[in-house]
Amino acid sequence: MRFLEVALAAAGLHLSIVFARDGEQKPLGVGPALGNKKHPNIVFILTDDQDLHMRSLDYLPLIKKHLIDRGTSYKRHFCTTALCCPSRVSLWTGKQAHNTNVTDVNPPYGGYPKFIAQGFNSDYLPVWLQEAGYNTYYTGKLFNAHTVENYHSPHVAGWTGSDFLLDPFTYMYLNASYQRNHEPPVSYEGQHTVDVLAEKAYGFLDDAVESDKPFFLGIAPVAPHSNVKSALFDGDIGDIGDVDDLAVFSPPIPAKRHEHLFKDVKVPRTPHFNPDSPSGANWVRELEKQTQENIDFNDHFYRQRLRALQSVDELVDGVFARLEANGLLDNTFVFYTTDNGYHIGQHRLQPGKELGFEEDINIPLIVRGPGVPAAEVSEVVTTHIDLAPTILQLVGAPSRADFDGEAIPLRKSELESATTSRHEHVTVEYWGFAITEGKLFGEAEHRLYLNNTYKALRIIGKSYSFYYSVWCNNEHELYDLKTDPYQLRNLLHPTEKAPETLLGIPFTKVTARLDSLLFVLKSCKGQTCTRPWQALHPTGDVQNLRDALTSQFDDFYVAEQKRVSYDRCELGYVIDAEGPQFGTDGLVYRHGARWDEWV
């Protein structure tokens, strides 16, 4: 970590210190929350499956008014696992999914029961905030497999007040079940779920005002997720013969007042929308070109998503109206983001997520609050792993040594400094399945793809922008997004002619560096996740990809380093399937033994 921030709480103040590359300590400023005289409030709005690259934010005028025009948008913000539950657990713990081992939406590899089994119910953000003197409130979707049967086994910890959406009704827009505090679930059949949520959020805001303590309020509408009629499930998804027996997906359902909107809007017709030639790797490359009937349905699906988001737009407006009416706006930070992105038609894909393409991992993040520049667009690389450290820093609470991320720069001066000092990489990882959420139109299409496990790296510098991945069948992907922003040309696919050079050096030498970086990141812990180059170069002479490209390191990367590989595909994080591992002592490990003891 080029910045190591230490928060010292004393008399309501904290001191932030930056350790620069040369080790010099530089104070950032005194006082909680960027210089405020009192601890700030936090409102955190978390939508479900909202896209950035299909321009959903363009259709949300109230979010533009309150957040985009009055706050900072983080253009290069990424989730690290493009699936609801793993992404949310990572967000609230500050840990990569390979360190939470919550990698799915259902047991045995994920969901609320796995969150409990991993010990996080007493060790995640709301618990830490309460320890810092905050009241904490939450309404909406927390995790998948949090159900009408297990909500009390045990109750979710860390919340002063809560009202959770529960499975199997979480994604039923007109038949949601909510469960308040320790009370039994209540069904809201016939009422639109986001309207129900809005009233609950406003109620918790009233409770927070009355308490006269600093507060955190989480608001998690299900929009624009697909409408899903599902059954409770406690088995292994690999045992399912037909996924429709588990869940029936359909387009989201907007509130009646919004169902007439956007009649002529279509999914943006970008170059990678239903392309003439296949792209990607693994099962994605085998998809057929979509028919016009298919495209027409997917355009309808897209319009329904935009319509469902209008209720979220109104909810945000209501939150800001109440913050302003109570005199809280000047001392409240409002975060707006989503758990993962979404694709419809790109790369011939049916509606869904779970992949490493930009549509699925590059997602909205907007922050407004005291000291945060208005109408700013930041180019710094940030991830969901950074949000828990950011919030703890804002409230003046101590950071945690086991965080895999680091606080996001919020002030103008911090943003400017971060353009040259912040890390440039994102660790992307996924295990298990991909589900098609729209209709199936081609005979060769499937609802469920089980071989969807991969590790990937997204890296963005001043002169380069790459996505590199290794799938569990050991297929590889590499996209140069500077020249191929829509990821249509996989430079490592056998049918593609790879360039002789990248960045002015031989192509294979660049891929060797990328693979070595992913080799560290795919099993990193703590500061190694933000300082992976130091694991490869302990002397500190390499800070980024450009530094690593120096010819003096050619033998080290091309000849000496082990490569990212899998032994087999698994539906969850099974360590002995994931090939050699990079040890914390800098040695290469394979399944717990040193590599040189294996070969």
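That was protein one. Protein two is written in the same sequence-then-structure order:
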Amino acid sequence: MSGSVGVGRVCRIVTDRCARFQAAPAEWAARRLLYPARVAEAEEDPVAQAHGELSLARIALAEDDLEHAANHLAGAIAWAPALPEVHELLAALATRAGDGVAGLFPLEEPAYIGTVVARAHLLSRTSPVEALRLLAQATRFDPAQPWADVSWVRALDVARLDPDELARLTVGVMQPLGDPAGPEVARANEVYLDLVRRATVAHPGHALLHGAAAGLARRFPGHTAEAVRWGARGHKLHADKLTAVWYAYALRADGRLNEALKVMRAAWKAAPGEMDLCADMANWLAEAGRLDEALELLDTATRTAPDYDCAVHTAARLRFAYDGDVRHLVALADFMREHPVTSHEHADLDEACRERRWLGAVAGPAEACVNVLHQLAAEDRGPMAHLSLSALEVPSALALLRRASPGIEVEITGPPPADMVAPLRPGRALWRYDALDAYPTVEPAARASQELLARVAAPAWPHPIAAYDHALPLGQLPVEELLSLLVHPPAAPDGWPMAQGWWERSAQTFACLGLLHCEELRAGAAPGDTARARALLTEIAYGVEDWTTDTACFALAVAAWLDPACREDVVAAVGYRFLAAVQASRQRAVTIRDSLAEVVLMTPDMVPDVVGLARDVLGRGPAPAAPAPAKPPKKRRFFQR
């Protein structure tokens, strides 16, 4: 669990520990809030747009058309919630409509944001707590707007309100603000800070209110010292896990890490079963560069409770950050599969894989012909007539070049390398060579198949298993269609933001993942059995050297993440293909070699010597020795010929 998750856990603790906080709002709990499309998408001046809505509302009010007047008023609030004229006209509408004014702003699903906020203002006199709840819903939806910064909130007599309700409202709005809140969000929501400041004075003996105030205030730059005072007061009034967490987080935000750790350790000592306290401390220590202390703390936690998800997730992420060994992430994925029920949602695996080649993103093209296309696109020179290459490059790259510059003449120096133009093993070949020219061995896929892949393919994903899950719709395509998409990728979607070659690489990657899902290949097999798909992917990997080689190896590695039973086979297939690329690179350029090295590093249970070679190829050197984990790793296997 990363440090940013702590507030979500605090919100959960509030509902777990305080039954009085569990009740839903009496009238309505917004599950979906929407902006009207004109507000969400337009780039016009919001104040000008609000005045336009107000003009229409005045016309409707003059004609006694209260429903249309309310509709335009809601639109004006969505554009500019703090505009004084909005509130003046809302008051006039309330006077005209009388007791039925709230009915002009019905809360439906989905609800427009302006309708919700207008209703809140109308309820402020009779039901201020309910009104605050609705404003909090709006703040959670879009914290950059000053939904609650109105006169009645700033003048509210908080002494008359239930401090439990005020604490609950504070918890509800703090998380969306950010940690810390950005300048725009802080300005828009300073009203909540003013509210809790007055509330703590009005209710000096309420521990949870002071703790929640600390949780809110630490998000506002320049107010961390105030957060510490509130946190200390709440913890002094009632020292439990919840007030300790709020106090410790405030201390940390104020730059007093050691004091924060002292508070957390005391809370953990008082409640040894609360392992999330340990996970938070480990995150803080790691962020402060004290990784050895963090891992030692986590080892203590995992020895005490080896199945506690917070400690397991945090330890895996921190160990991977330390030594880059994917076995930590694979072990985490195995743990997640074996323990589907968790204390809360975790993002550690996503964070560890983010923007790392193949773990969280496709590897980009490395060919000279694609680099030329990049330069042409940057300088806007138009199509080329002639290009001279010093060596043959992979067929997918040259096919891209010819699609981008129809009619181009490509001159390649030297004879075609035998180990590049012929498959390394017998099997399905997607390309065939005639001298230096490569041709697909399959016809283009049907338009519907191309459109499906274009909707699914992406250049990045949270982690390998998430990429596999995302490719699920492609499993409905026949094998031949998926193979065709590998060599005849569809056109990039409109607005594709990345450079030449990245779309084709992304499309091929997801076509390979689609083979793992392919219903045709799974027919008659046990659920989850990918043996036929892996056999075909291995044939592709050992076929003609191409971008499809490393994408097939990536799909094999993903299969190994999913199924420990197939890891030995995948290690052999991916490892030997990489070794063949390294061997060839001693005689000629192998543009996919580094990408294959990245696939090796993400393959579960890969042979350590091959991992070391992959690190050398990538110029990373040996991995640093990390502190020993709580449980010794499994014995590694070596290739058997």
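The beta strands are 33-34, 111-112, 386-389, 409-412, 431-434, 437-440. Keep this in mind for the problem set.
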